[in-house]
Design a protein that fits this description.
With about 190 residues, this protein is an all-alpha fold. Helices cover about 65% and strands about 0% of the residues. The radius of gyration is 16 Å and the shape is globular.
Length: about 190
């Protein structure tokens, strides 16, 4: 099966008992489902551009090189297959604390100037504490999600990184907050 479909999200059933691995698997499943939903109907380049923009932080946390390559495919009017393969390949790469912290820094760079000084410093401190392994990922993610809810930061509000699962499933997935790691870390 994997030889025929190398980008298919597959995980050994026994390994799904590990909360972080289960979350990584589910994250891949829902990311692939969002892409399938986009591509199953007639779409235009702007639709793919918007999709890619919504997945910026998520892709940066998983595979920055494939994120950039997929962006070039979108900008250059590349094929659906080329984008799909880059997107699914990026999501198959394990998110690391360093790449995840860099993705968080990217989010900060987009909104930081519009935050008050105390909030800016607190967010930066939380991101760095996560990078050093002193705080769970849920802390800076919760801050970013909180800032995104006011409607002032539309780009951030749309990021799938902040809510990679349907809301009803996210409540049942404790790995991000309990483990303090993004999907795939262990």
């Amino acid at each position: 099966m994997l030889r025929a479909f190398p980008l298919l999200a597959v995980e050994d059933e026994g390994r799904l008992n590990d909360a972080a691995l289960r979350e990584a698997f589910c994250e891949r499943i829902f990311a692939a489902a969002r892409l399938r939903e986009l591509l199953r109907r007639p779409w235009q380049r702007r639709d793919l551009m918007a999709f890619h923009a919504r997945h910026t932080l998520q892709l940066l946390a998983h595979d920055p090189a494939r994120y950039r390559a997929a962006g070039r495919v979108v900008a250059g009017g590349g094929t659906e297959v080329a984008y799909r393969d880059l997107f699914l390949g990026a999501m198959a790469s394990r998110a690391t604390p360093g790449r995840t912290a860099n993705a968080l820094q990217h989010a900060y760079s987009r909104i930081g100037r519009r935050l008050g000084r105390a909030r800016r410093l607190d967010l930066l401190a939380r991101i760095e504490a996560y990078r050093r392994g002193e705080e769970p990922l849920g802390v800076p993610v919760a801050l970013l999600a909180h800032y995104a809810t006011g409607g002032e930061f539309g780009w951030l509000e749309e990021q799938t990184f902040l809510r990679p699962f349907p809301r009803q499933l996210a409540r049942a997935s404790p790995a991000r907050s309990a483990q303090g790691q993004p999907a795939g870390e262990g």
